[in-house]
Amino acid sequence: MLNFLKKKDKKSFNMENIARKSGLGDKINKVIAVVNQKGGVGKSTTAINLSAYMANMGFRVLLLDLDPQANATSGIGIDDKKIKNCIYNSLIEEELIEKIVIPSKIKNLFVVPSTIQLAGAEIELVSLESREGRLKEKVEPIRKDYNYIIIDCPPSLGLLTVNALVAADELIIPIQCEYYALEGLSKLLESIKLVKTGLNKKLEIAGVVMTMHDSRTKLAQQVVDEVTKHFPDKIYKTIIPRAIRLSEAPSFGLPINLYDNASKGAKAYQSLAKEVMERG
């Protein structure tokens, strides 16, 4: 499958090497958390494909899976049977995070994997010293080694997500273009404000990305308009469509640029990656 796809989309992979030609690769060391306490809004899809396109553009990227469901890990093609240690071992058992990093199928893209073992971390973190800053403590020594560290957060506002907020410089919030899109968003914004006040004064919302947009429905555009009212200066121009190829790609363990780089979902995430870097 992989060989066929690579042959099929060979011309599509000859993207401009932005990092090399611009010199930005020597200047950027940024940690971005992809966060929303609602499930099914495209967090893992966004984290995977944003990371893949940034790496494809020549940046050195680390995808850190902080979700016990490990969707980012499997979606990027990491076999859980071959994972000796995951982010749990670093957060709870003091393993150096650089010893957990696994190279992906994409040049310049590396992964800190997750497993179901991480599910118990929420409880175990409670009794640990500096429990909200454990991830930051682990990530800081290696951030100089990567241009971007992308954190895929769990669908909750527990201690794992708080750790991501404390470790991050910026946040990307995916919001699906469906009914109840804004449900619970006020709680997320409140949590962000609390973390910024007490634990991470530099934390900022980089942007809000609209996902699962179905252009055939009036509701999708109504949701975009409503979210724009709440975040007038934060909405990314790129809107991620609801697309079959995007939903198929994770089952093959491939980001969309390896699965079908000519699809509308691929073009959308390529555009989003460029927009994220331009804003940065």
SSE inventory with pairings:
Elements: H1 2-8, H2 18-22, E1 30-34, H3 43-56, E2 61-65, H4 71-75, H5 87-91, E3 102-103, E4 109-112, H6 121-126, H7 134-139, E5 148-152, H8 159-167, E6 170-176, H9 185-198, E7 204-211, H10 218-230, H11 244-248, H12 256-259, H13 264-279
Parallel strand pairs: 1-5, 1-6, 2-4, 2-5, 6-7
Antiparallel strand pairs: 3-4
Structurally, the number of domains stands at 1
Between the first and last Cα atoms, what is the distance in angstroms?
35 Å
Oligomer: single chain
Biggest pleated sheet: 7 strands, mixed
Using only C-alpha atoms, the radius of gyration works out to 18 Å
The CATH class label is Alpha Beta
Instruction: Quickly give the CATH architecture.
Output: 3-Layer(aba) Sandwich
Q: What's the helix-strand series?
A: HHEHEHHEEHHEHEHEHHHH
Strand content: 5-15%
Classify the secondary structure makeup into a structural class.
Answer: alpha/beta
The whole-number mean of residue pLDDT values reads: 89
Query: Largest beta sheet: what is the strand line-up?
Result: 3-4-2-5-1-6-7
Q: Can you tell me about this structure?
A:
With 280 residues, this protein is of the alpha/beta class. The protein has one domain: Rossmann fold (3-Layer(aba) Sandwich). It is built from 13 helices and seven strands. The protein has a seven-stranded mixed beta sheet with strand order 3-4-2-5-1-6-7, sandwiched between helices. It starts with a helix and ends with a helix. The model is unreliable at 1-14 (pLDDT under 50).
